[in-house]
Amino acid sequence: MELEGQWWKGELAEDIYQALRYKELRLPAYKGQSPQLSLRRYFADLIAIVSNRFKLCPAARHLAVYLLDLFMDRYDISVQQLHMVALSCLLLASKFEEREDRVPKLETLNSLGCMSSMNLVLTKPGLLHMELLLLETFQWNLYLPTAAHFIEYYLPVAVNETDLHDGWPMTCMEKTMLYMSKYADYFLEVSLQDHAFLRFVPSLVSAACVASSRVILRLSPSWPPRLQRLSAYSWEQLLPCVQKLLIAHDSDVKEANKQKCPPSGAPPAQTVFQAPGSSVSLQPFMQRQNTQYMQPLVVSTQAPPTYRTHTAASLQASTAPLQSLEPKVNLPGRQYQLNPLYPCSAPCFDR
Fold first, then answer.
1. CA distances, 246 to each of 147, 239, 293, 326, 347 (Å)
2. Are 173 and 161 in contact (CB under 8 A)?
């Protein structure tokens, strides 16, 4: 679904946006019933690491994780097979969202350091079979909007000269726009880490990422009328999702501060208005609509990593074949031999 050029700036931007909004209302239902749900964070990180290595667009990464979520929701999959499923989802998403020359090649995938460290060796027949199974599961329809498809439509109006920073006019519009873009990208990646965000439609998650960024940047009002008109979401509609994003952000900041290991008895350093890594007290702004956020920010000079590196653990991987969790799903009669090829095991990492 690659769209030529910057579609959100063209004459058809509103029509494309409305088409995406229409499509998101018909996305497949997600029940969160996968027996391997505790491993989701690990495989979402694996997709993110590989997609960053090949510099794939955010839409491809988000679509890959969404395909993985839906597939795990329908089948009982062994840990070995999940590696194949996750990478096949990324390949399908990149073929759908990227140019042909940007799609990862099999030889390059097998040469990655993370593949060798996990003893993964992908084969062409194995990938083809898995891609066909994925396509037939989704009835060959990969036109599935994600939050990454909406964010560029909101960002051009996310900051305006009439906004106030800490109650004062902004002194540098260009710098504020840069921070807004970085924070929006950060919150987009936060939304990938937890399947709880799947209870919100993608356009709302994207709008909440912008609103959360404005809260962190202490821009007022938190959700101005122009963004409400553009997105058709009120502050009250965004608040549950914004809360989850800011709580996750605060958790990342605390983790980053722990890693800094300050000397015993030394007071934490405080500064104002830095890159992702500022710790925010959530209670004041959650109680009021469009409040001007005036609480002091405690900012980490080291931004928390969006993706944490993982090492192999001693989880015993199941070798059972795929078992459908959706008995009513009708797939063609083709039989796929998805033998466990990967002896590595993956740990569960909770936020």
1. 17, 10, 13, 34, 26
2. yes
CA dihedral 166, 170, 171, 175 (to 10 degrees): 100
8 vs 268: which has the higher pLDDT: 8
CA distance 95 to 140: 13
Q: pLDDT per residue over 87-117, tens digit each?
A: 999 999 999 998 888 888 888 887 777 676 6
Average pLDDT over residues 10-28: 87
Rounded to two decimals, the pTM is 0.72
Q: How far apart are CA 238 and CA 280, in angstroms?
A: 18
Q: Long-range contact list for 264-270, CB < 8 A, 24+ apart? A: 268/298, 269/301, 270/296, 270/297, 270/298, 270/299
Q: Taking the CA of residue 320 as centre, how many other CA atoms within 13 Å lie in the half-sphere pointing to its CB?
A: 10
20 token code pair: 């995406």
Helix or strand run (H / E) with residue 164: strand 164-165
What is the token pair recorded at 333?
Answer: 């009669």
Query: What secondary structure letter does DSSP report for 98?
Result: S
> What is the distance between the alpha carbons of residues 198 and 191, in angstroms, rounded to a whole number?
9
